Amino acid sequence: MRQYPFNKSKIAIGIALVSASFHSIAQNSESEDIELETITIVGSQQDARNVAGTATVVTAEDLEVFEYTDIHKILSSVPGVNFRPEEGYGLRPNISIRGTYADRSGKITLMEDGVLIAPGPYSASSAYYFPTVGRLAGVEVLKGASAITQGPYTIGGALNLLSTPIPGEQSGFFNQEIGQDGAQRTHVTYGNSTENFGFLLEAHVWETDGFDDIQDESGDTGFSKDDYVAKFRLNSDRDTDVYQELNFKYQWSEEDSNQTYVGLADRSFKADPHERYGLTKYDNMDNDHETLSLNYGVSVGQFEFKATYYENDFARDWFKVDKIDNKKVYGLGNGINNIIGAANSGSADALAILNGDNAEAVQIKLKHNNREYESDGLDLRLNWSNDIHSVTVGYRDTEDSEDRFQWYEVADWSGGKMGALSMYGSLPGYSSNNRLTEAEAKAFYIQNIITLDNLTLNIGYRSEDWEITQERYVDSVRSAVNAAKGYPKELANDDVSLFGAGAVYDINDSISIYAGFNDGFTPTGGGADPEKADNTELGVRYDNGNTYIDVGYFQTDYKNMFGSCTASGGATGDCEIGDSYNAGEAEINGFEIFGQTVFESGGLTFPVSLSYTSTSAEFENTFSSSFWGTVTSGDDIPDTVDSQLAFSVGFDNGAGWSGNATYYSFGDTCSVASCPAGTEIDSHSELDLVITRKFSESLDGYLTIMNVTEEEDIVARAPKNGARAQMPRTALVGLRWRF
After folding, report:
1. pLDDT band at 359, cuts 50/70/90?
2. Domain extent for 124
3. In a domain, 450, yes or no
4. Coil, helix or strand for 654?
5. Domain of 598: which CATH number?
6. How far apart are CA 458 and CA 239, in angstroms?
7. Where are the alpha helices (DSSP H) in 421-564?
8. Strands (E), 507-547
9. Does residue 1 sit within a domain?
10. Which pick of 84, 183, 494, 504 has the fewest CB atoms within 10 Å?
11. How many CA atoms, within 13 angstroms, populate the side-chain half-sphere of residue 629?
12. Angle at alpha carbon of residue 56, lines to 52 and 57, rounded to 5°
């Protein structure tokens, strides 16, 4: 796999900042608590509760309770957020906000520290990188009018992942975790701040053998993932009239995982939900990711200006089973999804192929889904505030690209054994596997938050202007673009203007009501029209300092919805990856309920919280397409559960012992709109427990048991239409040391 080295000027900046760190610390070893707001959008939990719109903040303390490494589990406790699980570890999340199509989180604005983090936010948003959750220090979820400043995806909302901040004084953190299936995780941070300088060094090393077995084959189904972060800050004196700050961040990660796209036919799932087919023996994901960002901020009186330059580079090769033979096998079709579908329809031949009991050898085609992504941009923000107004003006200029160079290898499959791999044909000539897609986009927004006694207003405007082009090459050395087929082609050249407004009114010190409206939008370059929707929300909040309750209603009225063809998605027929397909009008609405309180009894405290979402998601027209299949008005939108619950009860005895039990419940759905046999995903639930023992102010340990009752339900039927189960009962033990 080709690597993406940064250029010499970037390396020089990093070396200069590292050198400055030792010089600065030598000059001044004194420190003070420093609270910087250069990476957050919402701020604290209390700030989120006062937003004229809907926002949720998951804090570092919240994340520490279970030490989850799966973002799906973390977001289960956030109302309005749905997801489609995949491999049980959350390595490649599928996240939906208020019913947006979840596949590869491609329809939400995904950020880390306020910077777009999807590998190709415009050219290929449904990509395969997600920041390592185990190193995060918080999560911000913005929905409705509160998300107008964060684009380009404004129908559902935005997810901002917060990395570990530079500490205000010399300190460090060490967490060593071990568990079943050879699981090991080490998380280490160390940093310091002086009057004019701060730094943080971080490492997160994670590996496991996996919880699945491979039928009649040796080898594990686990992964290893290493992630490293370095941050440096230079700043002027705190009490100066003109405060200036320069932040530098570098992140690098690599992953090698023996994960597969192939799920199980229903009969195989009933026999053993955690035994993979032997034909997936060679399936493997190999990727690496680099991020560099440089942030400058200056504060003068009522004005604050921030400028952020960033680059994200991601390269990956997912080598995985794609097809069987070069023709339709026994008349079933040659895609692995065709074979699984046929097995679910009762075909003995299809089930025999999957289990390796086929009478004659077949040839398995495995595809190198080899792609490289680049994304860079400049983000400018200016804020002016007084007692009534807080006006923010923002501009972002970004470019991103997806480079595909994909080829096949083959192996014979007979007697439940895979033969040796060999090259299939030559490297790509002209095809969809040999192409470069590039996007350029400019975004502008202005937002005014107006505070008038008991009333807070949030009024915002956003514009997006984007262009997407694609080149397909005639040969593997890319000597020329295929002009005969009309390349390079302009896939999109469009612009849009969006409006949003929200209001919060405090009835008294404890009760407030809120309402909001915003234009929703999703760009596309795959042939379909962009998504447009009217989003409304209405709710009431109660907060007396000990108890907080938020009950809200939301509605998303799509003027047009589309689906994007990916290798992981729920297409019902053949479609070309990257193309998008109109679905027309649709409506999603529902209720979101969140509540938390603390009870005290006999020297014990019992924190209790509940998150519940009820969602109705339906198509509003009748049509047929190779992606959506045959759809009748009133059909449910696939992979959108009708209900989702997280109920948590904890305890703390004040003498070092604490714990938590969280019950998760998910309603039913289907992986295909018309919900034919073999696409149902029934309701399911799961219980997680954790016990923590605090030995001293700096040392504690924990025992986490996930899926305590060993549930083995179907939780997803994608990728490739196969059934998938949640992680089996798994115990992890960890020791945390703060120094």
Report:
1. confident
2. 8-738
3. yes
4. coil
5. 2.40.170.20
6. 31
7. none
8. 511-522, 531-543
9. no
10. 494
11. 17
12. 125
User: What does the radius of gyration of the chain's CA atoms come to, in whole angstroms?
Assistant: 26
pLDDT (0 to 100) of residue 34: 38
| Residue 311 to residues 200, 395, 398, Cα–Cα distance (Å) | 20, 17, 10
φ, ψ at 92 (rounded to 5°): -130, 85
What's the pTM value of the predicted model, to 2 decimals? 0.92
Contact partners, residue 386, CB within 8 Å, separation at least 6: 302
Place of tokens 């001044």: 28
Any residues with CB less than 8 A from the CB of 234 and at least 6 apart, and which? 17, 20, 196, 197, 245, 246
DSSP string for 493-514:
EEEEEEEEEEEEEESSSSEEEE
pLDDT of 4 strictly over 70: no
DSSP 270-283: HH-TTEE-GGGTT-
CB–CB of 521/465 below 8 Å?
no
Q: Say which residue the tokens 């199980």 belong to.
A: 264
- How many domains does the chain fold into? 1
CB atoms within 10 A of CB 300: 11
Q: Are 344 and 354 in contact (CB under 8 A)?
A: no
* 3-state class (DSSP) for residue 656: coil
Burial of 174 (0-12, 13-18, 19+ CB in 10 A): middle
User: For the ranges 132-136, 174-178, 338-342, 658-662, which has the lowest average pLDDT?
Assistant: 338-342
**pLDDT of res. 326:** 64
Task: Quote the CA–CA distance of 21 and 471 in Å, as a whole number.
Answer: 45
**Tokens matching residue 217:** 């084959």
Residue type, 468: I
pLDDT in tens, 140-150: 999 988 788 89
Residue that has been written with the tokens 């960002």 in this structure:
293
Give me the mean pLDDT over the 15-43 stretch.
43
Which of 287, 276, 285, 216 lies closest to 254, judged by CA?
A: 287
d(Cα 452, Cα 506) in Å, to the nearest integer?
11
How far is Cα 120 from Cα 374, in angstroms, rounded to an integer?
7
Question: Which residues have C-beta within 8 Å of that of residue 257, sequence separation ≥ 6?
Answer: 91, 222, 223, 224, 225, 284, 285
Mean pLDDT, residues 528-548: 94
**Would you state the pLDDT for residue 15?**
36
Token pair of 64, please? 């520490």
pLDDT surpasses 60 at 196: yes
Does residue 161 register a pLDDT over 70? yes
- How far is CA 149 from its chain centroid? 19
Q: Are strands 455-472 and 434-452 parallel, antiparallel or unpaired?
A: antiparallel
- Burial degree of 589 (CB within 10 A; 0-12, 13-18, 19+): middle
286 in Cβ contact with 129 (< 8 Å): no
Using a 10 angstrom Cβ sphere, with 0-12 exposed, 13-18 middle and 19 or more buried, the burial of residue 186 is middle
List alpha helices for 67-198, DSSP H. Answer: 71-75
pLDDT at residue 7 tops 50:
no
Q: How far apart are CA 43 and CA 236, in angstroms?
A: 23
- Residue 72 scores a pLDDT above 50: yes
On the question of a cis peptide bond just before residue 719, with omega within 30 degrees of 0, the verdict is: yes
For residue 625, pLDDT beyond 80: yes
The two tokens of residue 227 are 């992630």
Asked whether residue 2 is assigned to any structural domain, the reply reads no
d(CA 306, CA 378): 11
Res. 16 pLDDT band, cuts 50 70 90 = very low
Q: Is 341 exposed, middle or buried (0-12, 13-18, 19+ CB in 10 A)?
A: buried
Q: Beta strands 223-235 and 730-738: pairing type?
A: unpaired
Residue 355 or residue 627, greater confidence: 355
